[in-house]
């Protein structure tokens, strides 16, 4: 098997830029980081001067993309189509996300298996709060029963599984049981109190889904679920950085409170990667306008961004260093999923999922398990350089 040595770009390695080094790829994995002067037995690929080489982006909340909605047909083919659409935009790994739906839809989604580009599954619901449904169908929101618990326990043994719950809707014993089975539990679409959320965190809750959205705002005498997220030392906080879902000042507050436990998510829907101006979501028409996706009554229905958009927003609006912004969608996401040994960094032993960017953070292409997924002519020109 031919090895490849990528050189010429500034590498993002463990959160910092590493100049004058290249990445040696063998068998779909990173074999070594070497000085550019090294002469390994490999095909040398000279990347354009001034480009940036980052780990591939990891998105744990992807409802759709490329015109596809996971809920419409939750199977391997749909997951692959969505992953491919996001890969063209810089995201090399996703969790296809099924929002609140029927038990039958959940079991159909469970047939999706991990493969390069698809890390597992995210069930956002149905065990949510009737008081904070967002765009989720209230008639499908319910409490978990024994069949649900057994189904999720079995699924956790086969694939990485993220489950968004409302802490007030799931008993502590059930949270502990699911966490013990290996389910990653995240709180969202919830009106839980500070005390209730802290009890859930003690029982095994690991993080928070699109923090600040579909939950009560911070208040001086009723701090609630958002305060629990900000103050708990070990919890992870996913957030949508588009300037619509969360005000930049609140994003800055989150990053100050949780500098090492924040991860960016897209909450992307079918229009991502397309020119579509609307789509159907479980029988409701969602309009795409002014950077937002909304139903006729104005309810936000996912976000009109990809993960690279969120990174650019953090850099351009929050003045976050590019290295830190990229880490929020790479190493942080992998750590949240317990995949730091294989994903999220440019380091020996990692799967060779990489992202090539311009200095302005525009996506030039990606590598998935060492295979280039970008403009064919660009790669051919680089190999000939």
Describe this structure in words.
- The protein is α/β, with parallel strands linked by helices and 385 residues long.
- The chain has 2 domains: 4-55 and 344-384, Urease, subunit C, domain 1, CATH 2.30.40; 57-337, Alpha-Beta Barrel (TIM Barrel), CATH 3.20.20.
- The chain has 11 helices and 24 strands.
- The chain has helices at residues 76-87, 103-109, 146-156, 172-181, 194-203, 224-231, 248-257, 307-318, 322-327, 331-337, 376-384, and strands at 4-7, 10-13, 16-18, 21-26, 29-35, 43-46, 52-55, 57-62, 64-65, 68-69, 91-99, 120-124, 160-165, 184-187, 207-208, 236-239, 262-264, 278-281, 284-289, 292-295, 300-303, 354-357, 363-368, 371-374.
- The strands form 5 sheets. It has an 8-stranded parallel beta sheet with strand order 8-11-12-13-14-15-16-17, with helices on both faces. The protein has a 6-stranded mixed beta sheet with strand order 3-2-7-22-23-24. A 4-stranded mixed beta sheet has the order 5-4-1-6.
- A hairpin with a 2-residue loop joins strand 18 and strand 19 (284-289).
- Helix 3 packs parallel to helix 4 and helix 5 (194-203) crosses helix 6.
- The radius of gyration is 20 Å and the shape is globular.
- The two termini are 22 Å apart.
- The relative contact order is 0.16.
Offer a concise description of the structure.
The chain is an alpha/beta fold and 385 residues long. 26% of the residues lie in helices and 28% in strands.
- Number of discrete helical segments: 11
Task: Report the principal-axis shape.
Answer: globular
Strand content: 25-35%
Largest sheet: 8 strands, parallel
